[in-house]
Amino acid sequence: MKISETPLSPAAATDELPALKTNLKTLSRAQLSDFCRERGLKRFRADQLFQWMYQKDVRNFHEMTNLPKTLRDELTETALVGTIDPASQQRSADGTIKFLFGLTDGHRVEAVLIPDFEDDGSAKRLTVCVSSQVGCVFGCSFCATGKMGLLRNLSPGEIVDQVVKINTVSEETYGKGITNIVYMGMGEPLHNYSAVTESAAIICDEKSLGLSPKRITVSTVGLTKQIQKLADEQQPFRLAISLHAASDEKRDKIMPINSSLNLKALKDAVQYYHQKTEMPVTYEYLLFDQFNDTAEDAKRLARISKWAPSKINIIMYNNVAGVELLRAREERLDAFMRALRDQHVRATVRRSRGDDIDAGCGQLAIREGAPKGKTIRKD
Question: Nearest 10 degrees: CA dihedral of 237, 243, 246, 252?
């Protein structure tokens, strides 16, 4: 099966947006410059608009006070600044905050703020787990999002808006802004390649949040052509591979994508990526009880880790209702980590956060009243 960037459109043209107005939040940086140039505006006006929208989170043109009043009036007539609306927040006992955002077409997505703390209780690292799609087409058996199917892509602006609005909450709650972003929320990021890469560029822009690309990680289930495209374009952010099984036999059982893009194809893509970028990759490996947690699994994972310079995050799974796979027991985790150390593998254990509010890895989903989208999964 051929996997390419999904043609499902973002909320650029919904019934709820005026048909003749351009939503500036759906435009890339280059497209925003084109929008201004076509109206006879000087180049710096695009910079001003960009800064108001993404750094200052302003959506009303009349609040953009360094624009001439005549331009503000014109923009009000011809354009708009779409935004996502925070619908609710839930705070976990461990400090994790899950956000529900409403989109202009009635769809909803979730995102998560994950704090790590110093010994004195102050926040040292504040990570946003951001969504890139409404649902997901790839139907991994352990993932609540995959049960939704894919409804549509998010636009670059909808992705960035999650970060901007969560950054405000981070400053209010923890006294500092976010430090890291992971594209590991709802959706397969590289299936919405253009919007994801553009949103990362916006986030890193000095007139936006100015975050270093080294603090951004984009995850994928293993879309090989898109991994190669990242390399060809020299995209500067970090790459993570959602591996979760170290053999084709086991990966086939839990990740439908593996039937068309198997481990051999993934190996070729990873090695191409490293050859072109000289950047390491991270493998994400959810540990499931008596499924992928044996000594033999550890040996296979060790061999995969040698494809290119890499590190491995062993993730303790947060159980999902209706999923037979369960979190590995502590004694099996310990044995698995010993087996990896014996193979001289660089691996760390990451305990999924926000379990009590369904904010952990694989748990994000819109359940109540949500329609079903497209999926490659065959039940």
Answer: -140
Beta-carbon contacts of residue 62 (< 8 Å; ≥ 6 apart): 72, 76
Q: What is the DSSP letter of 188?
A: -
User: Per the residue annotation, which of 110, 188, 198, 284 is the catalytic one?
Assistant: 110
* Alpha-helix residue ranges (DSSP H) falling in 137-292: 156-174, 193-204, 224-232, 248-254, 263-277
Dump pLDDT digits (tens) for 337-359: 999 999 999 899 987 777 777 76
Kindly list the distances between the CA atom of residue 178 and the CA atoms of 113, 126, 185, 215, 276, in Å, as whole numbers in the listed order.
8, 5, 16, 10, 30
Active site residue 361: yes
The reply to whether 171 belongs to the active site is: no
User: What is the Rg, in whole angstroms, of the alpha carbon atoms belonging to the chain?
Assistant: 21
Distance CA 212, CA 26 (A): 23
Choosing from 136, 143, 204, 361, the catalytic residue is 361
The two structure tokens encoding residue 244: 């979760």
Question: What's this model's pTM, rounded to 2 decimal places?
Answer: 0.90
Residues 6+ away with beta carbon under 8 Å from 213: 200, 204, 236, 237, 238
Predicted confidence (pLDDT) per residue in 78-103, tens digit:
999 998 999 999 999 989 999 999 99
Q: Rounded to an integer, what distance in angstroms lies between the CA atom of residue 142 and that of residue 326?
A: 9
Q: Which residues contact 122 (CB under 8 A, 6 or more apart)?
A: 174, 175
> Cα separations (Å) of 324 from 138, 139, 244?
18, 15, 15
